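User: My instructor asked us to take a sequence, write out its structure as tokens, and then describe one feature of it. I'm not sure where to start. Here is the sequence I was given:
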Amino acid sequence: SDKIKIFYENNKILIISSFFILIIITLSITYYFYSKDKQKILIAEKYVSAKIDLNNNLNIKAMNALVQIIESNDKTYSPLSLFLIIDANLIKDDQKIVSYFDIILKNNKFEKEIENLIIYKKIMFSSNFVDESKLLEDVKPLLNRETLWKPHALLLMGDYFKSKNELIKAKEFYIKILSVKNLQKDFYDQVNLRLAFINND
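Assistant: Let's start with the prediction itself. The structure tokens for your sequence are:
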């Protein structure tokens, strides 16, 4: 008891300071999570409002809100907002859309398969206008990973080269799909149909 008193007297300032620092840290953490939750709710409300505006043909208002959500770097609503912009064709500038994909991928930490899905969506969108070298560069992450989206990416690339009548390149991508582990029967059938078309051409 006396030892405790002596220790307290000798370290009173340090103990009190540590106590207050602990309180400040606890309050700061609490406020941080409260602010994050509040911000998340506001972003969700803005997203719902944008969808309502779209239904009411208030396209410019909806687009502005959705762009703000993209730039807020919310890992749930930023991708959803971009997909909604694409589906509703709110932005005509293809490069602008690609830049929003890049912002989302750069500024958010996603679970791997969610990230792979966003990369696949970007490739699917940009395959209509980017050049071959850029498309091959963008698709690399999916081809070099064991991901659910790998066969989708290979099929997309095969179809891309088939549409350009580069059948040898198309065939190479289609054949790679058949070596993917646990390939769904639907994919297996699609690939064989495409290969049969190329072989009979």
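For the description part of your assignment, you could build on this observation: The chain has a mean pLDDT of 87. Try explaining in your own words what that tells you about the chain.
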